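Re: folding output
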Amino acid sequence: MVDFQIGDMIFQLAFIAFIILIAMVLINLFRSSRKRKKQLDELAEKVDALQSKLEK
């Protein structure tokens, strides 16, 4: 049976950590994109409300 070497274990742990890091970055990008879109929609509603008040 081949011995499981420390280098192999470190490489596998680093690779798993890298995959988890990529997943976390993608999730954060998605969440910030949704938050930014929500803020822009709220701002657009406020601008529309002000425009309608000015037209009266």
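--- second protein (sequence, then structure) ---
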Amino acid sequence: MEDLQRALKDRNLTVSNVPGKGRSLFTTRDFYPGEVIISEEAYVCVPNNNNSSHKRCDGCFTTTNLSKCSRCHVVWYCGTACQKSEWKLHRLECEVLSRLDYDKRKSVTPSIRLMLKLYLRRKLQDEKIIPSTARDNYKLVEALVAHMSDITEEQLVLYAQMANLVHLILQWPEITIKEIAENFSKFACNAHTICDSELRPLGTGLYPVVSIINHSCLPNSVLVFEGRTASVRALQHVPKGTEVMISYIETAGSTVTRQKALKEQYLFACVCPLCSKSGQYDDVRENAILEGYRCKNEKCDGFLLRTTDGKAFQCQDCGLVRDKEEIKKIATEIKLLSEEASKPSSRGNYQEAITIYTMIEKLQVKLYHTFSINLMQTREMILKSLMKLEHWREALAYCKLTIPIYQRVYPAVHPMLGLQYYTCGKLEWYLGDTEEAVISLTKAVDILRITHGTNTPFVKELLVMLEEARAEASFKLSSKEE
């Protein structure tokens, strides 16, 4: 801990114990919007290679020009550079995987590989084959919270089964199945999903120092990835002596939904400023809008709450009552359609998927509030399918429908909102709506230069796109004036 404190001091950070939260990361100077508070390479990480048709390179997570390791047939590389960079660790992993028969190798999931790499990396550091530092050593993993006493019996059995497989593969008598199971529990609470610049998941990594950072549903910082490097950037002015907070979950949802997700995945109840308002009028109203039902009067924008007898829902603005059975009937239709909706997409039949999702959307418009999360998610699915089919104009119309909901459910500076403006701007520019594209891309830049940083390739490309769109808009305007 002392070594870590000294290392963090150079980054103007310190670790303190907070009652009820444990270790927490604090600033020792002011940080400003877009500034990197801390960055960290993964102690161990793996690509998401569950799907046989979408393999990724173990080094850079790309999906192009891949070749399988000729010995273990489990790991993939895009070229010699990535293969060499991973060789010290993969040499040991390849050896233990190669001992397995073919069927057992197929059962080696990314989670199993992550655990294997954890112990193999520890071995390499113990033997000083690869260096260890104050911010890169196995003791930091040991210090992570496992919550073993809080997990369910079902989870415990699952971890034990996975630990048994890891123990079988490694064949190291000095480590126990109990110890491995505890580390699986640590993964569940502390590992992070590695995403690309557009927040699409690529893999999973363990970042022990970043894992010290606690959660808030109203965070002052954001975790993004540049390749496999985790970077925590300030979303706002973070004064000296402030705790650094990120969000562990998707925050678009009611307080109940957020609390449920945190309890199930991370085994704690959030007490952030947003969650502390639970049960207050504003919180009840917002929850009913995001996840509740709409008023039967189409001109009314009110929200509904259950009546005291539980038989109906009443609009809190105009007083109109909506029968519970009517709501139940529409909800059942939506559920039945939703069960069928994902099948066409998995087969690549995006037109059929659009047809089903459009039917769901029509029912949801009747049932849910205009700012419903469910309605937003359905429109997102339609948008993605339309883009797969290159139906750009229809895709733009749906992207514009989602923007008001994004503006409501996310803070003004949030990567999800910035990326939605980015998508909207790209579509507008492609379709020749240049002036609108400049507006959307400018909004995207204003957000993403803070969340992603101005020197990242993604934001650099976005800035070039914006300048080209501005030049085109200016040319069109001058042509009209002539």
